[in-house]
Design brief:
Helix content is 6%, strand content 34%. It has one helix and ten strands; from the N terminus they run αββββββββββ. Strands 1, 2, 3, 5, 7 and 8 form a six-stranded mixed β-sheet that branches. A four-stranded antiparallel β-sheet has the order 6-4-9-10, with no helix packed on it. β1 and β2 form a beta hairpin. The longest helix is centred in the N-terminal third of the chain and has 11 residues. It starts with a helix and ends in a 32-residue tail after the last strand. 25% of the residues are buried.
Amino acid sequence: MGTAAAGALLLSGCGAGQIAQTAEQVAAVGGTGGTVGDVAVRNAEIAWPGGLAPTGAVYPKGGEALVEMVIVNDGATTDRLLSASSEAGTQVVVTGEQVLAPQLPLVAGDQGDVAAIPGAKRITMQIAGLRDDVVAGRTYPLTLVFERAGRLTVDLPVANPTAPRQDEAPPAEGGESGEGGAAVSGGHS
C-alpha cells in the first residue's frame, strides 16, 4: 500500500515545471472590449486595410481609419450611442443605426455576417483627420458615450491582416531581365 501511494505521489509531480500546451495560444478574436452599464463592446479594433501592403503606416497621418466592433445592449431597455471621439484623430464619424435595442447588436466594419443575426444593424465608424500615422503594434483610444449606460473608453489595437495583401513589384533598375537570380550588392572594406 505504501509503495502505491509513493508511486502515485511521484507520478503526480511529473508535469511540474512544464508549460501547458495552451500557455501560448491566442484568443480567436483580436480586438479589445469593455462594458459600461448594460452595454458591451466586443472585438473592437482598427481594421486592417485591403490593397497594397503599407510601407510603414497602416493608415497615414491626415487620413481616416476604419473601426470595427460589435456593440450589444445586454439590458432590457433601449439605449443609444450619442457620440464617439478619439485623441488619434480630429473627429470620429459615425453613420448608420445608433439605437441599441436590447440583445440586438450594432456591427461596425467587417465583423461577420449581419444578415445572419435577425435584428442586427450595421453602422460605420471612422477616425478622421488622423493626428499621426496609425501603425501596427500600437493602440489608439476611442471613447463612446451612450445615453443610458454612460462613457466607455477602449484602446483599439490594429487588426491582424486576414488576407494576404498585394505588393507592387519594384521597378527594374537598369538590369537585364530574365537572368533568374536576385541581385546582391555589397561594399568593400
